[in-house]
Amino acid sequence: MKITEIDIRVRYSETDQMGVVYHGNYAQYFEMGRVEWLRNLGISYKKLEEEGVMLPVVSLSIEYKKPALYDELLKLRTMFRKCSGVRIEFEYELLNEQGELLTTATSVLVFMNASTRRPIGVPDTVKERLKLL
């Protein structure tokens, strides 16, 4: 299972009045991890979109264990789960500077034709890169 790690510094604008990351911001963190995971595999979101392929999130499940706080340096681990049919799935772990697990999540995305907005099979370029795992 290929894992990509990125660091994220919590910005003030991402927190509520208690200095805790607002729950809606986690989806953006996971998108950052997913984009870097794909980039590390040689797949560009931008290039996929230029080729008429979109990847909308159809499912996102998040479990909050501990709060992420303002100015903390977080480590996000993004892990490939599986790719089949029209779907690609990822798992995430978000840790604080002490290595404590703060949040876990899973997401499912669907490959979609940008013009028709209909699901499509996994593009050949993606299939070829996934074989390298």
UniProtKB/TrEMBL annotation:
GO MF annotation terms: fatty acyl-CoA hydrolase activity
Official protein name in the record: Acyl-CoA thioester hydrolase
Family designation: Belongs to the 4-hydroxybenzoyl-CoA thioesterase family.
InterPro entries: 4-hydroxybenzoyl-CoA_TE (IPR050563), HB-CoA_thioesterase_AS (IPR008272), HotDog_dom_sf (IPR029069), YbgC/YbaW (IPR006684)
Keyword Mitochondrion tagged: no
Pfam families in the cross-refs: 4HBT_2
Gene3D superfamilies: Hotdog Thioesterase (3.10.129.10)
Organism: Myroides guanonis
Nucleus keyword on record: no
Signal peptide stretch: none
Alphabetical keyword list: Hydrolase
Superkingdom, natural source: Bacteria
